[in-house]
Amino acid sequence: MAAERLNAIVSHLTPSRSGLSTITQKNPDDVVITLAIRTPLAKGFKGGFKDTQLDYLVYSLLKKVIEKSNIDPQMVEDICLGNVNDGKAAYIVRAAALAAGFPNTSAASSVNRFCSSGLKATQDIANQISLGNIECGVATGAEIMSAGGDRLDKPFHEEILKTQDAADCLQPMGQTSENVGKDFNITREAQDRFAAESYQRAERAQKAGWFDDEIVPITTTVKDPKTGEERQVTLTKDEGPRWGTTYESLSKIRPAFPDYGDKSTGGNSSQVTDGAAAVLMMKRSTALKMNQPILAKYVGATVTGLAPRIMGIGPSLAIPKLLGKYNLTLADIDIIELNEAFASMAVYCINTLGIDTSKLNVRGGAIALGHPLGATGTRQICTGLSECRRQKKKILLTSMCIGTGQGMAGLFVNEIV
User: What are the phi and psi torsion angles at 125 (to 5°)?
Assistant: First the structure.
């Protein structure tokens, strides 16, 4: 550790270090990830988690965190759950953590920034560690979309609706996707071709077993919709990938949002999905003391806002903002996990930022795997770091668009190469 401290001091005195060399330094106060795991992603309303409650899913994953890390639960000072649809998430994560084996001295909270909630939870735990408020924490994200959506029960107050951007926050996500397609001329063909590639990459990854080191099996109960009979099942793999999907098959699917446009379909939009993911985080010095394996370094994350009616293009703003903070360019990034909320926004971001698609969503994305809203931000970290390890690459960038017109991005350095 003395050598690392000396390197840190020297780095501050040495001018003109590149952004890449700066973020890849190892310092005792770095925030690091020592475990990154997720559940299988199950089809909403008809998959393996359709009868599973959020509390049980969070409880099951937190038990796996303790089991897989072999950490003394007493060391975990805070647990943050990213979740969108359940207003009782703060109750749920606290009770689930206690039942999973964390002591009552381990605090818990929930956060909701729509589709970035999992990354927001990661950022919150990392910031606490960085500031010295805690030494060790767990960031998790979970969503049971089978339980229902997050739409408002009634419109905003009439005074709020007088502001167009505010009123546009009420637009359904499908409408915002069609807005992006129309405003920026993202054709149906371009969207279907992108979606087909997502499915084909997910199929290839699943067949090759690439997901195996990020997924932990979850045992739960499923009820037969016809007989009501319950049976116990153990989920071990994602249910979303549809093997054999082609551009031709996707091009035959009818538009999903005909009131707003004719480009977004059930085949080129993210799937309704149930699932959860978690990362265990601490200071590097703490990880070394506790003999925890250091998987990656958390570098930072940022968020930005934009017009709600085209919320999908949020990553095209958040990514340059984040890279600029660390003196990086996309050429410095090895692996990119971009949430495929809709093919419209993914194609726009690729074209606008000039993303090298060989680095992008190598194992497929939300179109093929699914998008459990609160979990996606942490799921991307698990998948991205696993892919970095497979390819022996270092720099991971994650990003997603956010309902109501926002974008978020996160930056990580894989240390298992």
Answer: -65, -45
